[in-house]
Amino acid sequence: MSVTPAVVFDVTDLTKVYRMGEVEIHALRRVSLRFHEGHFAVLLGPSGSGKSTLLNILGGLDVPTSGRVLYRTDDLTAAGEAALTAFRRRHVGFVFQFYNLIPSLTARENVSLVTEISDAPMDPDDALDMVGLRPRRHHFPAQLSGGEQQRVAIARAIAKRPAVLLCDEPTGALDISTGVVVLEALARVNAGLGTTTIVITHNSAISEMADRVVRLADGQVAGVEERTDKRAPRELSW
After folding, report:
1. Of 125, 173, 187, 110, the residue nearest 145 (C-alpha)
2. Which has the least CB within 10 A, 23, 87, 124, 213?
3. Where are the domains of the chain?
């Protein structure tokens, strides 16, 4: 008998409204979802569907207008800025479309920045090894390809051993073959560290490697699919 993994995020009636002068923009409309420990989840939808807003609220980078987000038993929507900062530092790794590496630091030094402020960090070389870049650890970002820079960004995010890895269009700036290598790194982290991984994408092919696919449209959940036939990144085509 299979055991359902623990709930990591419990989202209830989440609404986010941005006000620009007299105009209200409804980015999220009463979204209710759950994300489970160790799962690889994909948030799928067109631009403006609410994916990034949801990811930012889950990561403690933004707060909702109404509704509730529980991280395990902690109510993030009741947390102040200091508590959200501590939550991000201890529990969350972020990977964005643009790598945000420091040009004057080597790959290893970029990863080390995170390990210096973490409670129980990985060795930077081990983090780079997980994404297949230990041999390139002494290279600067300008000496690395786009895919390699993105893998350094993933190593930096996982070096503090986060419980959750949140990725916003991590392959958006990459070609297909390079994107597959980056997705393989994310899959390796998810399987090897048991990190709950949530990936935003507009690319439906990536959903085939997920345990759960959440489709968003116009700030609402348009559908949730549980997958048992996950495919390896190299089996994807787009």
Report:
1. 173
2. 23
3. 37-65+81-235
